[in-house]
Amino acid sequence: MTSLVRADPWAHLRRFTAARIALGRSGGSLPTREVLAFALDHALARDAVQAPFDPEALAAELRAIHPDVLVLTSAAPDRATYLRRPDLGRRLSPGSREQLAALPPVPCDLILLISDGLSALAAQRQAAPLLAALLPRLHEAGFTLGPLVVIKYGRVALQDEVGGRMESRLSLMLLGERPGLGTPDSLGAYLTYGPRPGRTDAERNCVSNIRPDGLAPEVAAEKLTDLLIASRQRQLSGTALKEPDPPGGQRALV
After folding, report:
1. CA dihedral 195, 220, 155, 38 (to 10 degrees)
2. pTM of the full structure
3. Which residue has the higher pLDDT, 47 or 172?
4. Alpha-carbon span 147 to 68, nearest angstrom
């Protein structure tokens, strides 16, 4: 600290969190370096929302983990429309509906979907590491899996239509979360039992902030496996399904 910047007594806590605490003061204002850091994080968040998504490149990467991968599109024709019309991101394009209709029905326990959501960076960076940790756990737990479905311009509720059309007992949607300041590449995972159009957000479970600096892929995979097993056993999801506590915890599934 220079003599012009007053030290903050909480400065030692900054090593524990990426939150904006203990920034110091320069007169009545923030230090210049903190103002510039804020502007940079804001720019990164805006760029993440507008970043292009390459579903074919992601699909090629995912085939090394699971050979059966489909690439579909939502009803949103482009990024600008997707941001203005959330409803179009919640349903498939006519061409993708025809593509699914042409497939032979193969009922499965779980269908996994990956989409850009509001951060293509999150899907491109975090989806493959998460699935590499998750799929072996699911196989060990006896889940039968449908294809991995990569969808451009998808919203959370799109898992209901896809899961219903593919006759899956459960659906798990991975997509980029709304970027925050300092978290432009955070992935969210949304679980629904009995996916079908009309499901509400209260009927889903969410594991969020999946990224190396947040919830690590291995930890997220363990949490999701526990939730999926419990959802399959109890035949429900959402507010009626609670995440199991770690060993020694008091909370149980209710």
Report:
1. 160
2. 0.84
3. 172
4. 5
Stretch 96-108: mean pLDDT: 90
Is residue 5 assigned to a domain?
no
pLDDT tens digits, residue range 166-225?
Answer: 999 999 999 999 888 878 899 999 999 999 999 999 999 999 999 998 999 999 999 999
Please, which residues have CB within 8 angstroms of residue 18's CB and are 6 or more apart in sequence?
182, 183, 213
CB 195 within 8 A of CB 146: no
Q: What is the pLDDT of residue 249?
A: 46
Tokens found for residue 249: 């915890």
Residue type at 23?
A: L
Q: What total number of domains does the chain contain?
A: 1
Burial classification of residue 174, based on how many CB atoms lie within 10 Å of its CB (0-12 exposed, 13-18 middle, 19 or more buried): buried
Question: Mean pLDDT of all residues in the chain?
Answer: 89
The verdict on residue 248 lying in a domain is no
The separation between CA 94 and the C-alpha centre of its own chain, rounded to angstroms, equals 25
DSSP string, 25-71: EETTB--HHHHHHHHHHHHHHHHHHH----HHHHHHHHTTT-S-EEE
Domain that holds residue 159: 55-239
For 8, the 3-state DSSP assignment is coil
Q: CB of 81 within 8 A of CB of 152? A: no
